[in-house]
Amino acid sequence: MSTVIQPFFGAVAEDRSLRVVTPVPDWEPHGHRPLRTLFQLRLLRGPIGGLTLASSLASVAFVTFTSSLPMWLVREHGLATDDALIGWSLAAFSLAAGLGSLVGGVLTPRLGRRTTLVGSLLAAAVPLLAVVGLEPGGVPFFVAAILAGALLYVSNPINVVIAQDLAPDAPATAAGMVLGVSVAVAGVLYVALGWLQEIAGLGTRMVVGFVLVIPAAAVALGVLWRHPEVDRT
Fold this sequence. Notes:
- The chain is 71% helix and 5% strand.
- With 233 residues, the protein is mainly α.
- It has a two-stranded antiparallel ribbon.
- Helix 2 runs parallel beside helix 6, helix 2 runs antiparallel to helix 8 and helix 4 (113-133) packs antiparallel against helix 5.
- The radius of gyration is 24 Å and the shape is globular.
- The model is unreliable at 1-18 and 20-31 (pLDDT under 50).
């Protein structure tokens, strides 16, 4: 048996009596789009801006958990910096967040966008705040961490879909702005919380970061009230 590669657009496998040709599909270059289409400021001045703000506030809660919780466990509970509990806590929270995104896609057709988005953000405040008051490492602590991650990310795919519906002429740009700008804004807000930590302590910083899911829910609710056409299953 021998394999022969022919110098034309296709791969030929030759076996004395059998020849198979796999054609390479035609390639057509995509049209070039101006760089300014990647970021359209006009979108932020409308309801997309509201969704971006809501997503930013919710992202602060996520960053607060993943960044402040390890310091809190070390400083307030005396854990070693390489204690396995820190890794398990972050893993439980992050894995649950990924699952929450999938759950959001399942619940939305049944409950509606507004109920699922706003309800999940409001509900997330309970386990987030419970984490601060529970003994680390116990079953209740991990249950709270899992619920917090899942509920916090239920709204993530819904925000993207609503943004795309609000900007039918630029759905990819709208979704990218909601996801990208919200992360940037969340980073700035988290730095601002660092100043609060210097004044009131790490625990207070965490509580404030977690509580931001409530105004996030209020902002998202306001957007959906003003644009009921996107509040559908």
